Amino acid sequence: REITQLQPMFGQSLSREQALQLGLGDRAVRALMTQALLSEEAARLGLGVSDDLVRQEIVKQTAFRNNLGQFDRRQFEVTLQMNNTTEDQYVAGIRRDLLQRQLINALTDGLTASDTLVNSLLAYRNEHRVASIAFISEDSLPAPASPTDAEIEAYYKENAKRFEIPEYRALTYVWIQPKDVSGSIQVSDDELKSLFDQQKAELDQPEKRTLAQARFADRAQAERAAELIKSKNTKLEDAAQEITGDKNSFLVLENTAAKDIPLETVRKVGFELPPNKVSDPIETPLGWYLIEVRSIVPAKTASFDDMKQRLRDEIVQERAYDVLIDLTDKLEETTMRGTKLADGAASLNIAVHKIAAIDRFGATPTGTPGASDLPHRRSFCRRPSA
């Protein structure tokens, strides 16, 4: 990832050796060490992040929005594919970042920068400079002499790489996805009913609440904020901002189940408190809290009719992977016997795709993408010739 981020600056030519010389290896190791340490500490404190909070964070990313400014699932999948990242990897990364942010905010709450640092940053950011510019027109200079053949040949030899035409290859490939075989998979109602009975406890939806929580450094701060709310009818977020001076001390957990709240005291109070009421100060391992219930979604018992389609989709998805594995094994056996890929795929009713010319970055000679749906385009296009 470090190399990929810097490649645009080097014209896609940054090698592994150059990356190591630039210190990217050490930087990557330090980042991994920091992530591991923060994850260990978060686990020790019993912190967690709900699925709803992860979903909110993903939906906020502008890279996944369409022209109307709305989250676009297709745009989300394309962006992840272009970055060689799976959805599970990306979701895990977002969950880890939110967890670490929660931990770091708790550790840095109440810290202030020294006057020396503040004044230095202020002077740097507000610094102004006056510059004089002299413009020399191209027309005011004599035209250079035409280069000789020897000079042209020498320049070509020194810059031969700039005049190379990239290697292009013609590709024949097959790409089978679960959706390609799911239509042939049948699931009986008896199977669905049996699965529903097995998973009923998991399918029932627990009560969920939207909890607003404000964190304070000590009991005194929490009590002052509670008094502001009580005497002046101040909103919880405004009271937290006024007392702590930190906007990150306030957080809203949207539609969260009790099991997804890691702090036991917060969980207990949050799910006993009536709506639109602020709790008394609560002491936790991460500081003092005030909690407010903003909304409640009652628990819901799952019915077979409501869950039938979802269960069917899950079974079809699972069996589709089994079918894909079986088809892949058969195709591999066929090609190992000397049959061409296209012929072997045709015998198994697998669609065959062809690209007349494509380079290692997935582009055609005209510069356009060879195909819009290539799987992991860069690694796919760098396979050795068959």
Could you describe the 3D structure shown?
The protein is of the alpha+beta class and 386 residues long. It is 49% helix and 11% strand. The chain has helices spanning 2-6, 16-21, 24-45, 51-59, 73-82, 87-108, 115-125, 149-158, 178-181, 189-203, 219-232, 236-244, 264-270, 304-336, 341-347, 377-381, and strands spanning 169-173, 208-216, 250-257, 282-284, 287-297, 353-358. The strands form 2 sheets. Strands 3-2-5-4 form a 4-stranded antiparallel beta sheet, sandwiched between helices. Strands 1-6 form a two-stranded antiparallel sheet. Helix 4 crosses helix 6 and helix 10 crosses helix 14 (304-336). The chain is flat, with a radius of gyration of 30 Å. It starts with a helix and ends in a 5-residue tail after the last helix. The mean pLDDT is 83.
